[in-house]
Amino acid sequence: MQEKLKSEGKCLFCNKTFAKAGINRHLDSHLSEMSVSGKSGKSFLVKIETDKNWSNTPYFLSIWVDGEATMKNIDKFLRDIWLECCEHLSKFYDVGMQQKARNIFAKGLRLDYEYDFGSSTLLTLTVMKEYPIKADQKIVLLSRNEPLHIMCAICGKAPATQICVVCMDEDINAEFCDKCAPQHSEKCEDFADASMPIVNSPRIGICGYTGGTIDKERDCVFVLKK
User: Fold this and answer.
1) pLDDT at residue 2 is higher than 60
2) What per-residue confidence (pLDDT) applies to 53?
3) Average pLDDT value for residue range 38-48
4) Strand partners for 10
5) Domains in the chain: boundaries
6) Alpha-carbon dihedral of residues 213, 217, 220, 226, nearest 10 degrees?
7) Whole-number Å distance between alpha carbons of 2 and 193
8) Most buried of 82, 105, 205, 211 (most Cβ within 10 A)?
């Protein structure tokens, strides 16, 4: 995809925007403050990314996981926000789906996850910190990368709304705005059947994925500011 994309997310608690590199440190400040008077229990700040090197991927999730949540709960959350297209199989490596977070998670733990064993999407979960309080829900979305500024590969002036799966697989810039898409279809005879929408997910352009079912307001094309 084009040049390196800027990645930043908004904090659920204060609605301020932070670069990906600093968002979890900021979220920890809120959760640590809440730990003074929160309901006794156990919870965890977890970052989720699409590459083991945090700096190399623009897509990220930061979630607050209650100790009573199971890995199956996390699996469903990931499917609903980033992955689900054709009810593919998935797994966490080294842990079972029915195990609870409180029995597995500890600061610094890294878990690998795979969705779809054919056209796989691989994720890494890292436990950033543990807190002595219950989370507000089993899984709370604290931050997510805002829609990426993916520009049209032809005009370079408008946000891309469609991606050509054929060209993407050939490592060619394959993102087009609605105005320029017909121009690409003249060169790529497969585009009519290989066009998919731009979505805010690492599963963009893969299998039949066309978007999530939660946090839909950020699962879209970014709006170009005038």
Assistant:
1) no
2) 58
3) 97
4) 17
5) 8-144, 162-218
6) 180
7) 23
8) 82
pTM score, whole prediction: 0.94
Q: Among the residues of the chain, which ranges form H helices? A: 20-34, 71-78, 101-104, 165-169, 181-187, 191-194
pLDDT digits (tens, 9 = 90+) for 194-226: 899 999 999 999 999 999 999 999 999 998 876
* Per-residue pLDDT, 57: 84
Q: Is residue 56 scored above 80 in pLDDT?
A: no
Q: Report the alpha-carbon distance of residue 168 to residue 160 in Å, rounded.
A: 14
Strand partners, 44: 65, 130
d(Cα 132, Cα 98) in Å, to the nearest integer? Answer: 22
pLDDT at 171 over 80: no
Query: Per the structure block, which two tokens stand in for 161?
Result: 């709304």
Query: What integer pLDDT is reported at residue 169 of this predicted model?
Result: 78
Q: Give the side-chain half-sphere CA count within 13 A for 31.
A: 29
Instruction: Round to whole Å and give the CA distance between 195 and 163.
Output: 6
Query: How many whole angstroms separate alpha carbon 167 and alpha carbon 165?
Result: 6
**Yes or no: domain 8-144 corresponds to CATH 3.10.290.30:** yes
Could you tell me if 83 and 114 are in contact, meaning their C-beta atoms sit under 8 angstroms apart? no
221/137 Cα distance (integer angstroms): 29
